[in-house]
Amino acid sequence: MRAFAYDWPKIVEIILENKFMDLKAVNVRSSNTEDAARCEALIRKKMTADPNFSEKTGINEKNIKFLSGLMPSYCAEHPQDLCPTGKVLAPDGSTTSKQLEKAVRSFGDKSEIRMGTQVVDLVFENGRVIGAVIMDVKTKETKKVRARNGVIFGTGGYSHNDEMKKKYMGAKFVPYGTCSSNTNTGDLCTIAQKYNISLSGMNQAWFKQVVLPFSMRRFPGAFFLQGDSFIVVDKFGKRYACEKDFYQQRGMQMYQNPDRQVVFFVFDKRSRELYPGPIKGLGGPIPGDGVDKDCMVEGSNEEELTKGIKDLLAKVAPDFTLDSNFTSTLQAQIGRFNEYAREGKDPEFGRGDDTAQYCWHILRAKDNKFKNKTMYPIDQKNLRCILLGLSTLDTKGGPRINADGQILGRASDPVEGLYGAGNCVRSSTHFSYPASGATLSNAVLFGFKAGLHAMKPKNKL
């Protein structure tokens, strides 16, 4: 993680100077004064805590109002996040892919992109990797390709390999779907094991939640839980965390507890009408019209809602059952939440206390006159529920690498000529998700560093 944090700014400068990529700073702005006031208060709090804050960050009275209007980062409250706003960019992964392709093609006949081709083995000579065996996925024809400087893997995780998911994540937590490429089948892990290269962090992933039954028609992930009159409960009918936590946190809260194999997003007719579909261009769980028939349960009270939940649960996760006291516990839980909403304070899980959570929430509903815009009393006579399961953006375990992207053998010595970057290797982030874009930036950073290392004269064949 230190290598990532320390080297990222330097690598970005090199990439920009050589015009390999154009990093478009499309900052996500907040469109309301309430959120801006929260961000400004947080920045001023950091100013007060550190006399040298302005010198370190460049934030002062001239620009604080502008910066307060930008979205806060996921870890804005953390003491080490000196610039808590302005680092969140509009999501556009396709732009990154196109720019990377353009960069590769800029080398002319020195580079070649082969589609429909899978790396199935390595070629060694005197203990050094000197090439790879590739296979045409249609014809199954294989060829050996020699590498002048090294073989750098960027083949993704194993989210589309069911056998690996069961082995490393456990049968109870085989993720429901993924938004990773269909080719992410753990190829490097398979090859590494053949040569006794140890794997690490194989139970780690970039997590999110999805609506069950999983369907790409709805959205490949519930990245943010929109709405204010809702709670999320476990099989016992209890809230277990702040519903406004970010997607990696919510995924980990499920992954670490077998009683949360499936969790229940309980809301009401009001939130159904106010907040259907994606939020901020990303996935939200409340389905839009036309994609809700197979996933949403309705009930005029908790007992009726529970019956519908059991029926749907029997279809999507038949081995997972509700606690016998689910109905009464849920009823009491909603009652407590409604009190919190009216008071504007969640003493159990602090919903709305965190600046980032508060600002990433949707705009304040016009009828929500309560202090905390993330909460509104749930109408217990017009209940709705959808089931949420665990899902991945992709897994992030595999062979270990050093700061130069070199893959390490069992004795922790580099395997000469072999490199890896991105989700195909053990991530430096462990189970965390430090910021939006941490997925791609990890791959870009270590992929670039691997290329630089492979090009050094002493590493050439």
Automatic annotation (TrEMBL):
The keyword Flavoprotein applies. GO terms for biological process: steroid metabolic process. Keywords: FAD, Flavoprotein, Oxidoreductase. GO terms for molecular function: oxidoreductase activity. Gene3D superfamilies: FAD/NAD(P)-binding domain (3.50.50.60), Succinate dehydrogenase/fumarate reductase flavoprotein, catalytic domain (3.90.700.10). The keyword Flavoprotein applies. Its cofactor is FAD. Residues 92-440 form the FAD-dependent oxidoreductase 2 FAD-binding domain. InterPro entries: FAD-dep_OxRdtase_2_FAD-bd, FAD-oxidoreductase_2, FAD/NAD-bd_sf, Succ_DH/fumarate_Rdtase_cat_sf. Pfam families: FAD_binding_2. PANTHER family: 3-OXOSTEROID 1-DEHYDROGENASE, FUMARATE REDUCTASE. This is FAD-dependent oxidoreductase 2 FAD-binding domain-containing protein. It comes from Aplanochytrium stocchinoi.
